[in-house]
Every structure is written in C-alpha cells, then in structure tokens.
# Entry
Amino acid sequence: MADTKIDLQQGDITKVETDAIVNAANSSLLGGGGVDGAIHRAGGPAILEECKQIRARQGGCPTGEAVITTGGNLPARYVIHTVGPIWHGGSKDEPALLANCYKNSLRLATEKQLQSIAFPNISTGVYGYPKDKAAQVAVQTVKDYLQQHDTSLQRVVFVCFDSENKRLYEEMLKD
Ligand code: ADP
# Structure
C-alpha cells in the first residue's frame, strides 16, 4: 500500500528488530559466508535445523525463490532466505532473478501478515552483482510491489553494510 514506509540503515542486519530479516542465502540453504554466515552465527542452530527440513522436502531453494524459517535467537521473529543470482555480466536474466528475490520475500512476509521486513544488499557480495545496478533493481522492485499489492507491511528497511551501498540507496530513495 502507498503508506508503507521505506527506510535506509547502515550496519549489521542481525541486529535489526523487524518482524523478518532477509538472508542472501545460497541454493543449498546450508549456510555460507557473508550475511548468511552472520545470520546463522547470531541466530543459532534452530535456523539451520529448519533449513535442513526444507531442503529434505524440496531440495534446496532455486535462484530468485524464497523460504521462511524461525529467527532463532535473533531479534527478528523470522528469517526469509532468498537466493540471489550470481552476476555473469547481465545477460543471464540477472535483473529479473534479483527482482524475484525481493518480490518473493515480500510475498512471504505478506502471507505471514508481518508488519516489517529488512533486506540486505542481495547478490552484491560474493555473487558480484554491480552495486549500482542491484540497488536500482531493489528499490524499483520494492516500490512496484508496494504499489501493486495489498500488504500487511508497514515498513521495509534496506540495510546496507558498506558506505558505497548506503550512498547509492540514499541517492535512489531521494524522492
Ligand atoms: P551474495 O552471495 O548474495 O553476494 P554476500 O553475503 O556475499 O551475499 O553479500 C551480500 C551483501 O550483504 C553484501 O553487500 C555484504 O556487504 C552484505 N553483508 C555482509 N554481512 C552483513 C551483515 N552482517 N549485515 C548486513 N549486510 C551484510
């Protein structure tokens, strides 16, 4: 809805007190480095346990899709694990796949009737997506989703780990 607030924050997403935080996972759902490692470290073993159950049911998570687990020991009640695309130069459908990450995460949060969600800068770490292009997709996709769907969400937060992403998002959210 038009009255959902979009906020910007710099820092560690594991400390953020939204109903859900989003994890930039990999398709195995078994954990990794970067934000994925930080979330599993801070959230404890309950998150990995649920990821393993999901994996047993559906065999991991394809790129662009999302699954939801408990937040374990995190301040957030839920973690939404989504798998960003690896950047291959832009001709392998990367923008649409990255947009799907944001859409499917927002859809899961809405299905759970959550009021707030926080996103990291999906794919801009090890997966190598150019930060400016990724920020554009993230901001546009979230804005479009909120305009086009009835949602329980009152607040969407972009959590930037580094100052370059912070600057890019600031620029993009100016108006
Ligand atoms: P990907 O494989 O999707 O690129 P990464 O975890 O390598 O995932 O990086 C995604 C983004 O998350 C990067 O911008 C990285 O700087 C950021 N990041 C890493 N640790 C954290 C954290 N604790 N909180 C928020 N963002 C983080």
